Amino acid sequence: LDNNLDNNLDNNLDNNLDNNLDNNLESVPAIEQEPVLKVIKKRILIRSLKKTELDLSIYGARRRGRIYAMFALYSYDMNARQVPMSELLQFSYEDKAIDEKVLAFAREIIVGTIENLDFIDGKIIDNSKNWSFDRIQYVDRAIIRLSIYALYFQKDIPRSVVIDEALEIAKIFSDKDSYKFINGILDGNKQN
Question: CA–CA separation, 83 vs 137, rounded Å?
Answer without folding.
Answer: 19
